[in-house]
TrEMBL record:
Biased composition (Polar residues): 419-449
Region (Disordered) location: 418-492
Record keyword Membrane present: yes
Keyword Nucleotide-binding: no
Cellular location(s): Cell membrane; Cytoplasm
SH3 domain segment(s): 508-573
F-BAR domain mapped to chain residues: 1-262
Encoding gene (name): LOC101890398
Official protein name in the record: Formin-binding protein 1-like isoform X6
Main subcellular location of this protein, as a coarse class: membrane
Ranges where the REM-1 domain occurs: 337-414
Key words of the record: Cell membrane, Coiled coil, Cytoplasm, Endocytosis, Membrane, SH3 domain
Top-level taxon of the source organism: Eukaryota
Length: 574
């Protein structure tokens, strides 16, 4: 369990968390100082102190840490102490306050040093990536200039009106431009290698070392709080036997602190589930096929961590991606805007809450039913009709709670199916396609595409599966390839309140890609590919790690599906 491995992409959150930890340590120090001032006064002011330091609403999420929980227990124990407190004031001042001040000062200095190192590492990586980009642009310019010089030399060599000296001059220019292109190419390759090495070292060695050091500081702070709480309790134990029971509770509160458990909770709270970016591939411009010598060639590499387009690019235009998952975009009741780990956690908590409410409502209904039976057996005790309305209302509430429970269990089931490859958001994309974008293949290679987009209502929860089935008659379309002899028809039985976007024509390819590694399709919506296979790109990576491709198939037209972006090398059309 290491922050450097588990939280490699949470630099800002860890900086905030460690700062909050030190602030919490200072808060505890202030608590002791205020307590010392109140120790000489009566129990009323002591209880007021406890009230002032009760956790605020905005800090409720931090109460899951064992140190915060121990602090709350300490406050509860102190509320029972209402006697003479002046005796322990001096001991608390010497043993607790000075220790916290020294620890807080040390933690702040070491934290500042760690964050400074992290900032320098980020700046170094950014500088190297900028140098790589400049080298790439220089290489592109030099390559175009060399191509132009070669073309000029060929024209001069074929021009009989030019003297040999002029032809020789064009030849020298061509040679110089070719040399400049080769030099720029070597510089680009060198910068690329440096960038990949630095990026690998940054995410796997240097930055994890900084994060592990921050973890050590945070655990040191947590251990310090535990020791201070126990020490304060030890001071209290010498006051009077009458408060011994309270002191035992405080000791237990301090001993309940577990720095490893707190570190794990930090991971559980901030872990995104994504993986570090891979190496940047080398792009050799000299191997590109020039379609028109008068046009410039553009080379782009699609990366999930650097190029993200919010939408589907088709036929040189951008339109909003639609699908069944966009149903939850307005209210986010399925927590789809959270990372996978956090989403499952929220859904499990919601299901537990609903189950508890169902249990309570069931008990209330059973009580009403028993009351009704008693009234029916003995009318002198009451009129059974007065219970009938309450019983119907209880049944209605119970039915609604069960429907909500079933709905959130469905959300949780879908969420558990999401991390199919590397625990990143690409599963959301595949899952969205399986639910909201249905493709069926005809013998002539044509496809059926159906996109659903609309607002979700709880009453529609049970109709999600049936709305996408062929038997429902919703959103069906038939598209044929040109010259296949089959027409295109579209029948829509939905009213104006439905929101659908149907693509009548196949998506135009955005470029080509080559498989760097073999891939076996293990989930619905993905297709297998062999190493070195050439495919068409019809939808670029949208930040979830998957790219939609098309394979030309002579038997049935084509095959479409998703493949991991890190497994392919893409070249988009200009």
């Amino acid at each position: 369990m290491s922050w450097g491995i588990e939280l490699w992409d949470q630099y800002d959150n860890l900086a905030i968390h460690t700062n909050k930890g030190i602030e919490f340590l200072d808060k505890y120090a202030n608590f002791i100082r205020d307590r010392l001032a109140i120790e000489t006064e009566y129990a009323a002011k002591l209880r007021r102190l406890v009230k002032n330091y009760q956790p605020k609403k905005k800090e409720e999420e931090d109460n899951e840490f064992t140190s915060w929980q121990a602090f709350r227990k300490v406050l509860n124990e102190i509320s029972d102490l209402a006697g003479q407190r002046e005796v322990v004031a001096e001991s608390l001042q010497l043993q607790i306050i000075q220790g916290i001040s020294l620890l807080s000062k040390t933690l702040r200095e070491e934290r500042k040093k760690c964050l400074s190192n992290g900032t320098i590492l980020h700046q170094n990586l950014t500088t190297q990536l900028a140098a790589l980009e400049r080298a790439k642009r220089n290489y592109e310019k030099a390559y175009r200039d060399s191509e132009k010089a070669v073309e000029n030399y060929k024209k001069a060599d074929m021009d009989l009106n030019l003297s040999r000296a002029e032809v020789e001059r064009y030849k020298n220019i061509m040679t110089a431009k070719i040399q400049q292109s080769d030099d720029a190419k070597n510089e680009y390759a060198n910068q690329l290698q440096k960038s990949n090495n630095l990026q690998q070292q940054h995410y796997h060695e240097l930055l994890p070392e900084v994060f592990n050091r921050l973890q050590e500081l945070d655990e040191k702070r947590t251990r310090g709080i535990r020791e201070f709480i126990i020490s304060a309790a030890d001071v209290e134990s010498s006051v009077a036997p009458i408060i011994a029971r309270c002191l035992e509770g405080m000791v237990k509160a301090g001993e309940s602190i577990n720095e490893k458990e707190d570190s794990y909770k930090v991971i559980e709270r901030y872990q995104s589930g994504f993986t570090p970016p891979g190496d940047i591939p080398f792009e050799d411009l000299s191997k590109m096929d020039t379609l028109d010598t008068s046009q410039e060639s553009h080379y782009n590499h699609v990366q999930s961590s650097h190029l993200t387009v919010k939408g589907t690019i088709s036929a040189n235009k951008i339109k909003k991606r639609v699908g069944i998952f966009n149903i939850f975009g307005s209210n986010k009741e399925d927590f789809s805007d959270l990372p996978p780990n956090q989403r499952r956690k929220k859904l499990q908590a919601k299901i537990a809450e609903l189950q508890q409410k169902i249990q309570q409502e069931t008990a209330a209904r059973d009580g009403l039913m028993k009351m009704k039976v008693v009234y029916e057996a003995n009318s002198s005790l009451g009129n059974p009709m007065t219970v009938e309305g309450q019983l119907n209302e209880s049944e209605h509430k119970l039915e609604k709670l069960k429907m909500d429970l079933k709905k959130y269990q469905g959300y949780l089931e879908k969420a558990n199916q999401i991390p199919i490859a590397n625990n990143s958001p690409q599963a959301n994309r595949t899952h969205s396609m399986n639910n909201g974008h249905r493709s069926s293949r005809h013998s002539n290679g044509s496809t059926e595409d159906n996109n659903f987009d609309g607002d979700f209502h709880p009453d529609d929860a049970g109709s999600l599966s049936s709305s996408a089935s062929p038997e429902s008659g919703l959103g069906t379309s038939h598209t044929s390839l040109p010259g296949s002899g089959h027409g295109s028809t579209h029948e829509n039985a939905i009213g104006e309140d439905a929101y659908y976007e149907t693509e009548m024509e196949p998506l135009q390819p955005l470029g080509t890609c080559r498989a760097l590694y073999p891939f076996e399709a293990t989930s619905e919506g993905s297709i297998p590919m062999n190493e070195g296979e050439e495919l068409q790109v019809i939808e670029i990576d949208q930040g979830d790690g998957w790219t939609r491709v098309r394979r030309i198939n002579n038997t049935n037209g084509w095959d479409e599906g998703f493949v991991p972006t890190s497994y392919i090398e893409c070249t988009l059309y200009a």
